[in-house]
Amino acid sequence: TGTCVDVWVGVRELPKLPERVIVEVREGMREHPEQKTTEWVEERKKYQIHPPVHEIALIDDLGRLYEGGSSNIVVHRPPEQQQPHDEGAILRPPKGTVLEGTVLSLLEQVCASHPSSVPFLFSFFSLSELPKWGGVGITSTSRGLLSVDEVRMTKRVAKKYGLLELVKGEVEEEEVEGEEHEDKVLLEVPRSSLLEKLSKELNGALLASSCVPGEEKSSPKE
After folding, report:
1. Phi-psi region for residue 162, left (φ > 0), alpha (ψ -120 to 50) or beta?
2. What is the pLDDT of residues 34-67, one digit of tens each?
3. What stretches of the chain show up as alpha helix (H) in DSSP?
4. Domain of life of the organism in this record (predicted)?
5. Omega into 52 within 30° of 0, i.e. cis?
6. Cα–Cα distance measured from residue 48 to residue 26, given in angstroms and rounded to the nearest whole number
7. Total domains present in the chain
8. Is residue 5 part of a domain?
């Protein structure tokens, strides 16, 4: 005789993708980046975001980007010289410096299987190099891979890393009680055609592996 097994399936509507993805730079680092600790869960609360911002991007005192509050961050570095089939490289912070999600690991595989075999490099990227970036992306199961359209930061941070000339405008926002207020500015980031292609390929890989965007796993970035 066979054994009866109850199977429960949870279904929810996938989140609507935003028309414009906005990331806000915040100064601060995690003490144990590879561990999902209760301390980090509590610490994330001080990095609250307010619409229309979708994610934060943490930087250290050298301006190097590490990760978001619930996502990993990648940068598209264009080729130095235009060559046939050379679309540049995808950069992510070195191992051991961030909490890695499964989607970030899957992106590495997608880069390797891409027609032009996109290099996936473990390298820091500094905020001061923003003018050289071909694009910025954030990855998580609730988003897949999204290209960033706008980066916000305090005017002080923009000045520190030589970005004031790139400022497209000032951010108008209401002061929030209990939060320190600083004037913020916005910078536009180009939409990377490579990130757009990788996003489609990544979504296909997620479906094939039954890891559908929209279902959070054990890690906030998985």
Report:
1. left
2. 656 566 566 666 678 889 999 999 999 999 999 9
3. 38-43, 102-113, 155-160, 193-208
4. Eukaryota
5. yes
6. 11
7. 1
8. no
